Amino acid sequence: MNKLLSNILFSCFLALFAITGNAQNIVIQTQSTSLALRVNNNKQLQQLYFGNRFSDTSAYSSFNMARTPAFPTAGINYNNEPAMQVQHADGNISLQLNYVDHSIEKPNDDVTITHINLKDPVYPFYVTLNFAAYNKENIIEEWTSIHHEEKVPVTLMRYASSFISLNDNNFYLTHFYGDWASEMQFEETKLPGGIFNIQSKLGTRATNSELPSFMLSPGEPAQENEGDVFAGSLAWSGNFNLQFENIQYGRSGGSLKIIPGINAYASNYLLKPKETFNTPHFIFTYTSNGRGQASRNLHAWALKYGVWNGYQTRQTLLNNWEATYFNFTQDTLVNLFDGAKKIGVDLFLLDDGWFGNNHPRHADTAGLGDWQANKKILPDGIGYLVKNAEAKGIHFGIWIEPEMVNPKSDLYEQHPDWILKLPNRPEDLSRNQLVLDLTNPKVQDFVYGVLHNLLTENPGIAYIKWDCNRPMTNAYSQYLGANQQALYVDYANGLYNVLQRVRKEFPKLEMMLCSGGGGRAEYGALKYFNEFWASDNTDAVERIFMQWGYTYFFPAATICAHVTNWGKQSLKYKIDVAMQGKLGFDIKVNDLSDKEITFCKTAVDNYKRLQSVINYGSLYRLIAPYNNSAASLMFVDSTKQKAVVFAYNMYTKMGDQFQNIKMNGLDAAKQYVVKEINLEDDNRPAFRQSGKTFSGEFLMNEGLNWYLRGSLQSSILELTEVN
């Protein structure tokens, strides 16, 4: 019996209620996980159980989680943090939700969707709790649908996506915080009694300071490969709040209420009669096999359901930003195409600075909003660059920031009513720019038009880097007028409206979600993007930590990792770090020696050959970087015939002792040849046993002795089954 299950049993004595009459159970389950709900005799929906699945669903009738409501509301008889709070048309701020009925649909063999319909017995106010259970991936996705038939709008003040209860004495929360260039700072904390919030009020680039993702361990801290773990992620590109209300019952234990959803800050939503509001989706999983299995569950779900074309082969690329910044010409760029070809990447990406005529984009002070090629810099237009890239055997991609505007732009001068800014306050510029008002359908049309025009006029464009370089401040929409209270919510939904149109027209286009670094690392926008930019900080040692942190929630295929001039590490070290994500380059190829160019080309070839394993294989984190000077992780393909192991020394000290690299995910009965790749000298592998064959049993139980010596050393091992 797992610890979470035993704690739920322990809680039963707190408040038992009768299981008689018309009480019925509703069970949402995957291969390994179950969420059991009950409708009691008073038509109230309650949570019975959440944890490992029972083969016999009747077993859930034995559980009672202390009269735990499944979706508590404010104003009646619940005194803690509610999942929903509203104000009715008559001013009444109470809400009661009684069970009406439920239905089940099955879109395919893997997915079961349960809809539970609830209604206020006094008001024509309706809520549907929706649960999509992904059987093979062991993921549950929950969201709330809200509508009413009152005569005038009802104000939604709190409207959570989910409400999950766990019972235990202690709870340990793993989350990630940071800022620009210092994203993904790891923290595991024991939750105190009371309320702990992970939240954002940034509007745009909402994940700049905190991710809307977490891992939670009841009882004791979880390990990588063992221990109970509840992992969750809110798919929302705006202000969010993950609330953890830890209610303590003295020495008898406690109950944790997990309440993820849109941040109630400045987000009162006026719901019109017969309008339906759908909350963001909350994706969660439970396992008794540690953080690693929770991550693999999320990765499997994301690649199949959560990311646009998750299994689409990603293009390696060369970006011009660090080579030129804003200082380039048409001929400069065409010459850089040769560098992309030399190192073997698929695509050349033109970054910021290519647009604006009346207000040319020579710095970040002008041009945003005027998305026409600068005629002086690019006299023959973007199409000329696309054709020249294709002539050299590479694809062409381009940077845009379509949600933003500089005061020095034609757009700003022509449409001041399209800009979010308070009418009676000074403009609050950040990076010399303001945010366009995506609550306005005309602005949505404009932003969509930027993409439509660029891609239809230049159909060879194969990649878009979509950036967003500032949060929302002093925000006011002329379009919304007096109804400003839901501006942040309407903005995010306006962005989604644009992205839906873009994806309908350009389904195969590869797009990177960038936001001044890792400001949009969440599944709400990734529904429309293939990948995201992890951080503007590309120092390879810093990236080991950042990329490690992102792997808790996102598959490697989504984490863009570039080789750049940042950091003092060797070229090999930088490439070895970048290869554990979606590989790209942002370097001056002309400054490289012939030997370095050859090394880059070999590494790119290795990456392409192994990309399906790295990007889509099962991830196993072997040695975490947080408490020592080394790190190692590996990817294993679905057949367990091929694996790739990454190993890094960071800043080591004399006397450091390193543990063996005990691998995971292999077939114990198989034999694997272990070969080191990305070698600067084929005759001097760091792994002196390169080419030797080992059993899967040995590699997982004994492992390889740590073989890297000295600071800033790296190695990649390729494992291949021996037939």
Automatic annotation (TrEMBL):
<feature type="binding site">
    <location>
        <position position="180"/>
    </location>
    <ligand>
        <name>substrate</name>
    </ligand>
</feature>
<protein>
    <recommendedName>
        <fullName>Alpha-galactosidase</fullName>
        <ecNumber>3.2.1.22</ecNumber>
    </recommendedName>
</protein>
<comment type="similarity">
    <text>Belongs to the glycosyl hydrolase.</text>
</comment>
<feature type="binding site">
    <location>
        <position position="431"/>
    </location>
    <ligand>
        <name>substrate</name>
    </ligand>
</feature>
<dbReference type="InterPro" id="IPR002252">
    <property type="entry name" value="Glyco_hydro_36"/>
</dbReference>
<keyword id="KW-0732">Signal</keyword>
<feature type="active site" description="Proton donor">
    <location>
        <position position="536"/>
    </location>
</feature>
<dbReference type="InterPro" id="IPR013780">
    <property type="entry name" value="Glyco_hydro_b"/>
</dbReference>
<dbReference type="Pfam" id="PF02065">
    <property type="entry name" value="Melibiase"/>
</dbReference>
<dbReference type="Pfam" id="PF16875">
    <property type="entry name" value="Glyco_hydro_36N"/>
</dbReference>
<feature type="active site" description="Nucleophile">
    <location>
        <position position="467"/>
    </location>
</feature>
<dbReference type="InterPro" id="IPR038417">
    <property type="entry name" value="Alpga-gal_N_sf"/>
</dbReference>
<dbReference type="InterPro" id="IPR031705">
    <property type="entry name" value="Glyco_hydro_36_C"/>
</dbReference>
<dbReference type="GO" id="GO:0004557">
    <property type="term" value="F:alpha-galactosidase activity"/>
</dbReference>
<feature type="binding site">
    <location>
        <begin position="465"/>
        <end position="469"/>
    </location>
    <ligand>
        <name>substrate</name>
    </ligand>
</feature>
<keyword id="KW-0378">Hydrolase</keyword>
<keyword id="KW-0326">Glycosidase</keyword>
<dbReference type="InterPro" id="IPR050985">
    <property type="entry name" value="Alpha-glycosidase_related"/>
</dbReference>
<feature type="domain" description="Glycosyl hydrolase family 36 N-terminal">
    <location>
        <begin position="44"/>
        <end position="272"/>
    </location>
</feature>
<dbReference type="GO" id="GO:0016052">
    <property type="term" value="P:carbohydrate catabolic process"/>
</dbReference>
<feature type="binding site">
    <location>
        <begin position="351"/>
        <end position="352"/>
    </location>
    <ligand>
        <name>substrate</name>
    </ligand>
</feature>
<dbReference type="InterPro" id="IPR017853">
    <property type="entry name" value="GH"/>
</dbReference>
<dbReference type="InterPro" id="IPR013785">
    <property type="entry name" value="Aldolase_TIM"/>
</dbReference>
<feature type="domain" description="Glycosyl hydrolase family 36 C-terminal">
    <location>
        <begin position="631"/>
        <end position="719"/>
    </location>
</feature>
<dbReference type="Pfam" id="PF16874">
    <property type="entry name" value="Glyco_hydro_36C"/>
</dbReference>
<feature type="binding site">
    <location>
        <position position="514"/>
    </location>
    <ligand>
        <name>substrate</name>
    </ligand>
</feature>
<feature type="signal peptide">
    <location>
        <begin position="1"/>
        <end position="23"/>
    </location>
</feature>
<dbReference type="InterPro" id="IPR031704">
    <property type="entry name" value="Glyco_hydro_36_N"/>
</dbReference>
<feature type="binding site">
    <location>
        <position position="536"/>
    </location>
    <ligand>
        <name>substrate</name>
    </ligand>
</feature>
